[in-house]
Amino acid sequence: MIPGGSAPRIHDVAARAGVSAATVSRFFNMPGLLAEETAERIRRAVEEIGYVPNLNAGGLASRRSGLVAVFVPVISNSIFNPTIEAMVDALSAEGMSTMLAMTGPRFEVAPRLIDAALGRQADAIVLTGGAHGESVRRRLREHPTLVVETWGLPEDPINYAVGFSHRAVGEAVAQFLGERGYRRPLLVVAEGSRAQSRRDGFVERWTTDGGSPPVEMKVSIPSRFGHGRAAFRRVGELDPRPDVVVCGSDSLAQGVIVEALHAGIRIPDDLAIFGFGNLAVAGEMRPTISTVDIDGGRIGRETVRLLKQRGEGRLPDERKIDVGFRIIARESA
Amino acid sequence: MIPGGSAPRIHDVAARAGVSAATVSRFFNMPGLLAEETAERIRRAVEEIGYVPNLNAGGLASRRSGLVAVFVPVISNSIFNPTIEAMVDALSAEGMSTMLAMTGPRFEVAPRLIDAALGRQADAIVLTGGAHGESVRRRLREHPTLVVETWGLPEDPINYAVGFSHRAVGEAVAQFLGERGYRRPLLVVAEGSRAQSRRDGFVERWTTDGGSPPVEMKVSIPSRFGHGRAAFRRVGELDPRPDVVVCGSDSLAQGVIVEALHAGIRIPDDLAIFGFGNLAVAGEMRPTISTVDIDGGRIGRETVRLLKQRGEGRLPDERKIDVGFRIIARESA
DNA sequence: CTGGCTTATGAAAACGGTTGCAGTGACCCG
DNA sequence: CGGGTCACTGCAACCGTTTTCATAAGCCAG
Question: Is the pTM of this model over 0.85?
Fold first, then answer.
């Protein structure tokens, strides 16, 4: 494929530019140190022979791999995607690369995956939206690699956490719906500890505010559009009939809405719907879906900022970064 | 974080097991060569000191990084996600890692991203669903790294391509709808060369079969749910009124359906809808959406199989792997 | 026995960079 | 003009594996 010979190495550039390999290395890593004229010669040599530094070799020598391992449950239809996208972009802008690994919807990080990340000398490990087993947490706690947990704010983060309080979300939704005058919510709760936290927050606030304990219904992960159908059926069976369905995700809300439209039920007059996540579809549905907005991109960017700060040796003291959330009131509730 | 000292190295294991570093290396890479008793001693030593091999150093020495760079336009709501998931899983099962990079919806692979992939000595580069610029293609063609293009079947692949003929999809859809008796299709075409190929295939087949040239309408990438609204509006304006809307994606189809339901239009009696992609939602919508199924997971797995074959030095001669597609006839058309 | 294989292991040279330390001028200042 | 600084660059020792080549031991046929 390549005409002749192998890829050029740093020595080739050095020879061509009439400098030492060390200087070429500095050209890439500490450009400020070079005399402008030297830099120019190197720049030209690099250009002419098409040199691309071997980052693996560099990482080995410098003990900084520039690799970040990102663990994510799934990516099909995942609420974490904006976070991942923002993170990949921001990392790439910093000259770092993202190693992606998937843990499956139950978020059991296989030890094998951890080993892969550690074996590649990842500069940092990002755990996305998972309740990780104690053994994994312990393993990571003992390891010097920086670990950032995202989307939740655990009691005691392994190192750092960037996210928001799911419990607070639940409370805010309860308050919002209470104030709007709804009285008989049906909670459609997905499995998983984060959804459970939101549920707990909702129920606590709802009952504290004088509401009677809401009817609940569990759906399996991932909480998909199709579950909406089952939820809607449940609405019909209940007596008294719920006046609002609080869904664990916008997809779910969407499913309920389609079902309701299909059955000729008016939203929100006959039945209100509340979602979670503020997916693009939430603002585009008929009716538009009231939901909770999470700035997923910001979670990704804050995470990268953390890594950058570590690189500069000034990690913040506060180990939890709360990006908050917003209730988005639209037509459906 | 770690109690004392740094991570154990291969020498530490060797010393503890009373063998040389070379033998420990073989324990991991060519286990068959070791005497069972030696292997057992090493196994124990590894276990006791918690050794994890430094894959970067290993890659440097062996010139096999075990890294695969995957380029993808976006991941939020992307039709490629099942492919990526399958690929990440399969790679991880092979002990390789996935480096993810995003090129944005227009799929302009920044040279910087290519350099990052090459600089990390990626064993292979996977391009997903893009029409890559000529300069990028040339650059990759000249480089010995294995390149796999997925989701399309270019005339002359850089190295290998795994996908299907978008043109053939368009033709098959035209035939299907013709046979079902539809006469006035409205084509909602997304930007991008793949969508364009499907459109070309459709139009050619449609007119060849005696249909009059279909009405077309362009929507911007990514073709989202919200575009469905505009498409539906267009249906109302046209005279004669279309009898089927051929959508560039299932999300789009979904959008049109919601709009139609909302307006009290019956599907497929008053208006039929046809999608593309067979997203989960297509089977769950009311009505269920007729569409084209692509086995995205298979594309990912075939790609990894290719990499594995390369590792074994037996790459196939045929450079295009066609995974085909299926028309899924459901309620909406 | 002996010589030729096979099997299991070790010694040491890569792999392609980075970086601490030292060296060299140029420049400045008293 | 001597000594001290500063800005820049080179030398060479790593970084932690893999892999080639060599060696030693065991085995078997002749």
Answer: yes
